[in-house]
Every structure is written in C-alpha cells, then in structure tokens.
Specification:
By secondary structure, the protein is α/β, with parallel strands linked by helices. It has 14 helices and 16 strands. Helix 2 runs parallel beside helix 3.
Length: 405
C-alpha cells in the first residue's frame, strides 16, 4: 500500500515524497486509518517497523486541516534520544504544514526552561516529552493541558521498565478525559495491559511481529572470554571495510570507554556516547554518526531504543542483555524497515544461559561461532552453566565464612 492511498493532506504527501517514502509498512497500513477515525489504539510492534510515522502522520493530517490555538498532542517517551528523534520526524513530515513542535527532556543546562514554559502555557501543536522533565513543569502549576485532544505513549514498556508508571498516571490526571489515546509498545506484559485499561477507551489492537528481530537481520554469536572481546571487535571491524556504520552496545560506561579508547588506538573512526556526556555533546556525536562523519559509535544500552538511524550495517553486542526483550531492541537498530544488516553478540561463559533465553523468546537458534584462531580457544557452548546462580548461607558460629547450599 502506498502513502497516497491514505488520502492525506497533499502537503503531507509532498513531504513524504521529499523524504523518499513510498510504500507504507504493515503497522502504518493498520494504524493510520484507525487513528484518522479517532479510535483509541494499542499497538504492539517491534523496533524499526515505522511506528513513529504511523502515529505522527494522522495527527499532522488533522492539524493541517485547522488552526488549533492550544496544545493538541502530547507524546510521552522514555528517553531524551527518543524525544529528539520524534521531534525531528515531526519537523520532517510537517515541512510544508504550519505545525509547531517542541521536545522537552532533562539533561540540559537549564537555558531551555523558559522556552518550554512558554510552549506549555501558550500552547504548541505537539509536545514531545520525557516524564520526569514534564512533571517538573507540572509541579509549577502553569501548564495548560485543558484542551489536549491526543495523548501518545511511545515505547510504553520501556517507560514502565524504567519506573515511570506512577509518573504517567500523574501526567494523565492533568489531561482531559475526552481525548484520543494511542499506546505503542514493543512488548505487551501485564503491566502494560493494566495501564491500557486505565488510559484507553475501547481501543483497537494491532500486533505485528511481537518480540521478533526484523527478518533482514543476520544474527550470530561469538563464544568469547572477556579478555578476548576487544581484540575480537578489532578483528571483526578490520575484516569488514564495507560496513560504513557500526554500532557497539555495552552494559557499562567503563567498558564503553575501554572499547572506544582501544579502537582509537587502532586509528578507527570512532566516538562514544554515555550518560557522562551532556545532552548537547550526545546530539553532536549522534549528528556526526548519522552524517557518516564517524564510522563507529560505542554506546551504553540506554540508546538501544532511543535512536533512529538509517543504514546501520553492523550491530555488536559487547555483552548479552540481561533482559531477553532488550536483545530485540538492540538488534532492531539494524535492518530498519526493509533494509538488511548484521547483528553479532559476544557471549562469555556466564552469559550463555541468557542467550538461550533469547533464542527461546525469538523462536529460533542464533548461529554460534568460535573466535578467530589467533585469539586462542574460546569457551564451549553450555547454556546451563550459569542458569542457576549459587546461593550462600553462613556457617554457624563462624563469622564471615560462607558455603554453597
């Protein structure tokens, strides 16, 4: 189905053409008509399926038809990266339509507060916000959300994972009861169902490729000890000069710094992103990576859902995600929509049981590879090795001495 078949405002169609989109993705095909009809919606779709356009285009289509003086739409997202991403998408799709938008998120130097206050009191067509920063404004008492007509909760499962359930409820209490509410989530745990019952009215439901990596992703896992991982990364990147955009995810800021430092020593074009950087610096690094001025980006897991960059060739997971669902989101950074990509995960002995859980979740086996011969022998595949962590108890009468149960 093409975007022209939605009969959107011709100015939106012009922007869509300008951005190079022609065929709608399955989530867009199902969601856009229901949103245009004013129906509440709960949508479960994986990363990279085109969710942002699915909810932004019908909202913009409504705003293109009228001059609405107040804030029309509030989009709540878990991270500042996702707030910026959606704000940029709105700017692109509304290029020929007089619609204003503003991203509100923490991590700045405070200079943006006054601009945010003006938007929240005088009205702005679309506000994209993270819960914490928005609540900081709500506590001041000047926010005017009386006439909001659309509420969108994006990456709802991630927000709940991050402990924002109460914050979301508090934000919703400031909104009109009569509104259209759209909830987008990559997974559908019971807590999401609970939130949906409270926030949505007779919603339509869409389920697309739940908890499955995109079909275009070639997945593999290298069995490697920790001390082999950085040399392995060097080898993988050196062997793939055709891969122009490479994302490396790691669980800790320390390992991000170590990977970045080692790659710089090898004269690779690399930058890193972690919470140590100011938001301005993070956006600057992301901008360079998007523009392909930097070939390799090393990032903490916070970015696994929060960026939208086309044509990423290779994803490397330095370690296996603790949550099997997070693997889908990390891998979702490559093979966006209809493209293809490669996702490699480095697995030490202690993380094998986690990889096994991922395989059970996605319903397929991930191909296991040995490390290159020059790096020595890696561990053998044994997913039950650490599947049960040992527990300990004190020996009676001997302080500080422990034994396995």
């Amino acid at each position: 189905m093409t975007f022209k078949e939605f009969n959107l405002d011709e100015r939106l169609e012009e922007a869509i053409d300008y951005m190079g989109f022609t065929e709608a993705t399955p989530v867009q095909v199902q969601a856009i008509p229901q949103i245009l009809d004013g129906k509440d919606l709960i949508c479960c779709a994986q990363t990279g399926t085109g969710k942002t356009a699915a909810f932004i285009l019908p909202i913009l289509n409504k705003l293109a038809q009228e001059d609405y003086p107040d804030t029309d739409t509030l989009v709540i997202v878990p991270t500042r990266e996702l707030a910026v991403q959606i704000h940029q998408a709105i700017q692109g799709f509304s290029y020929f339509v007089p619609v204003g938008s503003l991203a509100i998120y923490g991590g700045g130097d405070g200079s943006e507060w006054e601009q945010e206050k003006i938007a929240l009191t005088q009205g702005n067509s679309i506000i994209v916000a993270t819960p914490g920063k928005l609540i900081a404004h709500l506590r001041m008492g000047y926010v005017k959300f009386n006439n909001i007509r659309h509420l969108i909760l994006d990456e709802a499962d991630r927000m709940l994972d991050m402990g924002f359930y109460e914050d979301i409820q508090k934000i919703i209490s400031h909104l009109p009861k009569k509104r259209q509410t759209l909830m987008f989530s990559a997974t559908m745990p019971p807590k999401i169902r609970e939130l949906a019952k409270k926030a949505l009215v007779d919603p339509g439901e869409i389920n697309i490729a739940m908890s499955k990596p995109a079909e275009g992703v070639l997945q593999a896992a290298y069995l490697a000890y920790d001390e082999q991982k950085i040399p392995l990364i060097h080898s993988l990147i050196a062997d793939k000069p055709e891969y122009q955009s490479i994302l490396i995810f790691s669980a800790t800021k320390k390992s991000v710094s170590e990977i970045n430092k080692s790659l710089k020593k090898k004269n690779f074009s690399v930058e890193k992103i972690s919470s140590d950087l100011e938001q301005r610096e993070r956006e600057e690094v992301l901008g360079k990576f998007k523009a392909k001025q930097v070939r390799i980006l090393v990032a903490t897991d916070v970015l696994s859902r929060g960026i939208d960059i086309k044509d990423i060739s290779l994803i490397i997971n330095y370690n296996v995600p603790a949550d099997a669902e997070d693997y889908v989101h990390r891998v979702g950074r490559t093979a966006r929509a209809s493209s293809t990509g490669v996702a490699l995960t480095l697995v030490d002995r202690e993380d094998m049981y986690r990889l096994k859980r991922i395989e059970e979740l996605i319903g397929s086996e991930i191909h296991k590879l040995p490390v290159p011969h020059e790096l020595g022998d890696g561990p053998e595949w044994n997913p039950v090795y650490f599947s049960k962590k040992p527990t300990f108890k004190k020996k009676s009468g001997k302080k500080g001495k422990f034994k396995k149960k």
